[in-house]
Model the fold of this input.
Amino acid sequence: MKETVIEKIVSERTGESYYKVDHSSGLCLLLMPMEGYVQTYALFSTKYGSINRTFKTSGDKDFCTVPDGIAHYLEHKLFENEDCAAFELYAKTGASANAYTGFERTSYLFSCSENYLESLKILTDLVQTPYFTQENVDKERGIIAQEIRMSNDVPRRRVFFNLLKALYHEHPINTDIAGTEESIAEITPELLYKCYNAFYDLHNMVLAIAGNLDVDEVIKHCDENLKPSKDVKVETKFPEEPDTVVTERVEENFSVGVPMFNIGFKCKALPPEELFRKEMVADIMLNLLAGKSSELYRRITDKQLMQVELGREVFSGNGYFSLVLTGESEDPDAVLAEVWDCIDIAKDKGFDEHTFELNKKADYGGTIQLLGYAETCAEEMTLAYYANKTCFDLEDMLASITLDDVNNAVKELFARDKCCISVLR
Amino acid sequence: MAYKIKKESSVKGLSFTYIEDPKYRGELISVRLLLPLEENTPQIYQMLGTLMVDSTSVYPTKAKMSEKLKSLYGAVQNYNFVRVGDNIVLGFSLQCMGDRFAINGETVTTEAAKLMNELLFSPNVKEGAFDQKYFEMARREVIEAIKSVSNNRHNYAVRRAREVAFEGEPASLPPFGTIEAAEKLTAEQLYREYKKMLSIAGISVTFCGSGHNTEAQKIVKERITEFAEKRLAEHSGEIIDKESVISPSPLRAEVKEVREKIEQEQLKLVMGFKTEGGDFYAEKLACMLFGGTDFSKLFTNVREKLSLCYYCQSFIMDFKQTMFVDSGVDAANEQLARQEILHQLDLLKKGDFTDEELENCKKSLRSALRIVTDVSEDFNSWNYLRQLRGIDITPEQEIALVNEVTRERVIKAANGFIPDCVYVLEPETVNGGEQE
Done:
């Protein structure tokens, strides 16, 4: 068994710090004690989400493909043990607990104000002790079917997934995280164990805890409660994704008061080491393009197309990178025309340097304030870890971004033949 | 307990709260206006909220205001609008990074304090009317919000249930008002309403920060106190200065049921229950045992055992002494879900819960109360809601009150909840689907 290695990570700017612990079990621990905080917030994550559909481990000969929605189903099932649901266990400690599945990550969490080691024991036991039977897997199907229907009734979600289907031909990002009622019907205890054994290897996981904690106590807990796991080296295969979009327009009727729209720009997917910085650059660029100080905002409000600024998101990850603008308007196509006009102007003239510097300053302030919440500290440490960074690197990376970076991004990331609009009426 | 809290009220209709904790990284200035909820007020206050944060006479365009906020390291200026009992609270907040983090040693907080004063007292007004362009934008924003009210089916069902439960009471008024009323408003009229609003509002100011923002506090305090003293001389009788805004909704003799249809896949079911009890902590714990936690009777039975739904939860609108259960179920299972919800309430009324289950609810509540002091925004909201109940209390004192609640009090509180209404939002095409 390898030795546990502890590294202290310090912010040069603020002097704040956290610990990265390469634990002997194979798990990485990210621990941020926060002075004066009552809350302990723990986030146990595996690098496994809905897009990890086709995979193999180092022990498998061939790749296998599992039904859509299985990562989410697995999250539901891991949230109970042989005797009861996790909620009943946490009830005894007073902790508030939850779990969620994303495209690329599944996380289990709790928040509490006392006896955090008791809650941590529940968390580490649950995640390490799968218990799937035909009966308990079947029981969950009805609940998840209702969750799928509930999500389908949320227009914001419908318009977004319609966009993803229109942008991506093959990549599993085009499929709802929870799958469909048909795909979850195929899920069996055997398939759940297969996914669990591949992705819930501690080498593929990270435990981030922030707030009221003692680093030595947590490490001792892990020494005593984590079962060393073999590094199964799971590999996910993604289908070849064409550069083109599937369709430039998708519309659906769903009786919404004011038409909702998502405009997506499909960009070239990036390798993990380039992703983090490009996301930051793209984020600043979208703020300059569509924020309250922008020409685009002035136009869409002057022309009464929208009253509020466009929503903006850099939507990116393993094998996908898109920019998404969202909003509600009686005339989404007129908004799209203004968006293109302003993109063309930005490509031609570049953005204003003063506004660019102000945006960076605001982003710096935002980063500082984010680290005042135990939840966001745990989340930021996890995100940075998966990007092979520290959460204090964000400030340095932000400082390194230049106006040229942003002006180049606007030229690089927007192409007329890779744009799609999804409208829900 | 690292925080310090201090309260002052020297002028009628004005109070100050200072919450100080060295761990807070940001500084928060919050000004809340307690106002009457009347037929034509929702759209007026929604529009005023938008107009007042979007621009002022000093920063007369949204672009200029946005630039100013960014120059303060991304300070956030916001408003919110909450219906509390039969009143409205229009809240304004300005949150910024603490001065100690400023790269060039700028004093961010005093600039933020000046902005808050401008927001309140220097609106973007010309010749007795709000700027016409921004007025029209605010009007369209309200109208679009009214049109989009059913977009989120879940929230819409709860909103409609509230209208059914509080029929005839101010609390049933729609949060954005009506399109007709919004269309009739003029920029001149709205400015008159702004002046009226400031002349009658019960004003509560809260400063939350690390304890280094005394200059900012002084800037806001002096300006608002000067205003409050002046208005006291002019409008003394009209100023809202309530001890408490609790306004229980009367019990109904018969359950009222309303059914509506909309395009959707899942049926949304909301059931309302009212009480005349008023034992706040016992009712809160009864609600938690019933459906307010992930180990409650509704979660364990309706979701986990019967697999009828993904969500089935209860919550209390305590200012109206009304509890709601909301759930999303398959249309074919509506009656089954309704029967089970009522059955579980009946069991609770009969005391069918263990001491351990009650203690677990108390633990959960205690934990939430302890944690509330970690985040300045949460502490600020928590404190103000107690103020509106007419209670001066700390989280630690509230924990002691929770601990005192007995099993008997919970049973009595549960028995106080009488079925009041049912609101059902059905799918236009009934699709039973498969159920296990």
Q: What stands out?
A: Chain A has two domains: 5-236, 249-424.
